Amino acid sequence: MKIGDIDFGERPVFAAPMEDVSEPSFRYMCKKHGADLLYSEFAACDAIIRSINQTLKKIRSFEYERPFAVQIFGKNAEAMAEAAKIVESEYKPDIIDINFGCPVKKIAGKGAGAGLLQNIPLMIEIAESVVKAVSTPVTAKTRLGWDSNNMPIVSVAEQLQDIGIQALTIHGRTRAQMYTGEADWTLIGEVKNNPRMTIPIIGNGDIDSPQKAKEAFDKYGVDAIMVGRASIGAPWIFKQIKHYLTTGEILPEPCLKEQVAEIKEYMMKSVEFMGLPGGVIHMRRQFAKTFKGLENFRETRIKLLNLSDLNETIALLDEIAEKWG
Fold first, then answer.
1. CA-CA distance, 214 to 245, in Å (whole number)?
2. Confidence label for 248 from pLDDT (cuts 50, 70 and 90)
3. For the segment 113-127, what is each residue's pLDDT rounded down to a tens digit?
4. What is the per-residue pLDDT across 63-108, written as a single tens digit (0 to 9) for each?
5. Where are the domains of the chain?
6. Predicted TM-score (pTM) above 0.85
């Protein structure tokens, strides 16, 4: 599978862009475990244009992260084009991705992200303006539609392809679903198997096991898959999926001591990028998801989620490895 001149090989596995998650330490861990493409957190076009430092931090990357995609969002075609030019010239990503899928109210409710599924002509205008503004490959990520009565993804995919979008990621939910219920892959498969479509189609939604990853490729024919929430607290899922796709063998979960070692490495990277105590506090989302299935672990997890001191956190992680390992 190729996007522009980037050859990802067969059945690549991408790390989904997630706000407040896809920062450098998370991307480092995903890359370590074999993610084939990393994305930035989404960045508002207006904030890029105004050089808001907090936003610019989101789109900076390291050479080892390549191939790397910067994801931008907005509701104005001219501003999106200007932001894309800045991203291309100053940050030099391998791909510029347009967010047409974020369902949260502060984005979609203001007409950006998934909100553009209610204004398809404007979505296409924005995509075309970005494509024309840069020479970097432009991709897009969207959802099936606004709600169950409005799912125009087959037509939308054709239109995005026609104006020069070079790959399309589809999350198998509507905006109304947010992240509830099950992802519906049937329409993703319909887009992929539409004879008019020639660009790569990347499937996203509920891929939380190697078996589901294989089904996405085998049953729906997608060119790549994107793993999101299942990688929070378990970045080794990329290694597990790729091993299964290659060999048909299920890699066991890392033992508890291995998980602790991984999480400690992750935390040290987080501290390296964010400093103290921010780098420790940032790990709370990971701590809430990892170490699943341990008996009588609730009080220890609560304690872990409330620590902000690095040495105290390391000591508790070591205690977890010793007590439950």
1. 6
2. very high
3. 999 999 999 999 999
4. 999 999 999 999 999 999 999 999 999 999 999 999 999 999 999 9
5. 2-247, 256-324
6. yes
Domain 2-247 = CATH 3.40.50.620: no
CA atoms of 76 and 44, how far apart (whole Å):
11
Of 172, 171, 170, 174, the C-alpha closest to 148 is: 174
Residue type, 115: G
* Best CA proximity match to 160, nearest among 251, 98, 216: 98
**24-32 vs 256-274: helix axis angle to the nearest 10?**
140
- Establish whether 102 is a catalytic residue: yes
pLDDT of residue 25: 97
Q: Are 291 and 256 in contact (CB under 8 A)?
A: yes
Closest CA to 39 of 85, 101, 89, 82: 101
Hey, is 78 helix, strand or coil? helix
152, two tokens: 């125009």
Q: How far apart are CA 117 and CA 126, in angstroms?
A: 12
Pick the catalytic residue: 30, 45, 102, 255? 102
Segment (H or E) for 15: strand 13-15
Both tokens of 104, joined, read 């949260």
